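I have been asked to look over a protein record a colleague put together. Alongside the sequence sits a line of tokens, each denoting a local backbone shape. Please read both lines and tell me whether the tokens look consistent with the sequence. I do not need a full report, just your reasoning and any doubts. I have pasted the whole thing underneath without changing anything.
>
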Amino acid sequence: MQQTPTNNNSQMRTAAIVTIVVIIGLLLLGRFVTGISGNPTTPTTSDTTTNNNNNNTLNPANTNNTTTLNNLGPVVAAQAIDRDNCAVDATTHFTTSDPVYVVLVDSQLPQGTTMYARLYKDGVAIEDTKELTADQDYNNTCVNFVFRPSQSAETWQPGNYEAEFFVNGNSYRSTTFDIR
């Protein structure tokens, strides 16, 4: 009995082509997924409270078009800011009449990045700042939000506070402090 010879070369070519197609597909899928996760999203937040005394600014010093959201610095609380909007006298203790500056330090922000800060007292949200949007790429910049006692109370209530930064609608980092 004679068997028909199999064409091993044809099978090997088919396997090689399938392997190449799978590798190309995986590479394209990887680029697609990276593209999605690398793009900032538009937040859907609402201001539940307002603060008429916020001076929310971005410092455009040292711009660079190759920034990413992977290069965000720490968040600190301070009693003051310098001319570049960076923290002066970072602290975790304030008096009942102090303004509280919450500062994102030494960060790179791509154009279109959005940010706001939320203030909590004893774990309960009490105030959101207005949202900022970067109008260009920023490199080595500080972003600050200032919280002041409400106009009706004129002083803070003593207690434990936390200020949380939100970047592109997502919680980033927070800092805690107390008011005595």
User: Anything to note?
Assistant: The two ends are 99 Å apart (CA to CA).
